[in-house]
Amino acid sequence: MWFRNLLVYRLTQDIPLDGDTLESALAAKPARPCASQELSTYGFVAPIGKGADAPLVHASEGFLLIAARKEERILPGSVVRDALKEKIDEIEAEQMRKVYKKEREQLKDEIVQTFLPRAFVRKSTTLAAIAPALGLVFVDTASAKRAEDLLSTLREAIGSLPVRPLSVKVAPTATLTRWVQTQEADNDFYVLDECELRDTGEEGGVVRCKRQDLTSDEIQQHLGAGKQVHQLSLAWQDKLSFVLDEKLAVKRLRFEELLQEKAAEDGGDDALGQQDATFTLMMLTFAEFVPALIEALGGEELPQGV
């Protein structure tokens, strides 16, 4: 239940997002298996619990948890290319003519349709949490594409979802670079031992440091030469550690033992109780963490008219 990554989106308008309304909307787009000739399917599943009766929305303390599942047939490109080449060679040899682009595309489509029923199916689930009172949506991924898949499907389900990625007034690279230069972050954040440095030029080099003393002369020389920090490992209070990049993606998010023990204590012996306690504590933590992070990075850049 603990999110491992985090992309945050700002709701730019007030829309009704209560649990019952959302449950009815998501029920119109349930996850389902791929049919034999489908490349992929996408829909919503129960985020907590199993079975047909498990709700598609889990609500706690004003926060809403949802989950989307993608099923896709894995058809390696090399397999299609080899089969296509073999077919083209066969046609050109037997009919003594050239196979051109339009026919190539048609042959490729036919090969894909032939192979699809035998392709492996891969399933992946993405969790997201909505905090209507905060006007924020949290998606458990570091991939903007994967987040947009969930958000666009949610938008289709409820009819409207005016969101934009959370952004800040000051370029994150400038703030992260300053933190490494001074070894002093803001608002209960602490610089750890991992970073990625990049030159600002078009052919800029990249230096990746792990388990390094970021106060060392070597790191400071790179900064002095004009490199900027594009990714930095940080800790917040005694609750979280994570890696933050220049697009505000939070990666490798780790909740410290203090929070994990608290969730275990609150959840009791029941598995569903444990999941509910974990979700609630995680969201209460995010409700403090995200505003603190945005303030430390120079304040939120709000949409026009807000």
List keywords for this structure.
306 residues, alpha+beta, 3 domains, 7-stranded antiparallel sheet, 5-stranded antiparallel sheet, 37% helix
Written account of the structure:
This protein is of the alpha+beta class. The protein has three domains: 7-74 and 120-165; 77-117; 172-296, no CATH class. It contains eight helices and twelve strands. It has helices at residues 19-26, 77-95, 101-115, 144-158, 172-182, 217-224, 257-267, 271-296, and strands at 7-11, 40-45, 58-60, 63-74, 120-131, 136-139, 163-165, 189-198, 206-209, 228-236, 240-245, 250-255. Strands 1, 2, 3, 4, 5, 6 and 7 form a seven-stranded antiparallel beta sheet that branches. Strand 3 (58-60) and strand 4 form a beta hairpin. Helix 2 (77-95) packs across helix 3 (101-115) and helix 7 packs antiparallel against helix 8. It is globular, with a radius of gyration of 24 Å. The two termini are 33 Å apart. The model has no long low-confidence stretch (mean pLDDT 90).
Set down the secondary structure blueprint:
Layout: E1 7-11, H1 19-26, E2 40-45, E3 58-60, E4 63-74, H2 77-95, H3 101-115, E5 120-131, E6 136-139, H4 144-158, E7 163-165, H5 172-182, E8 189-198, E9 206-209, H6 217-224, E10 228-236, E11 240-245, E12 250-255, H7 257-267, H8 271-296
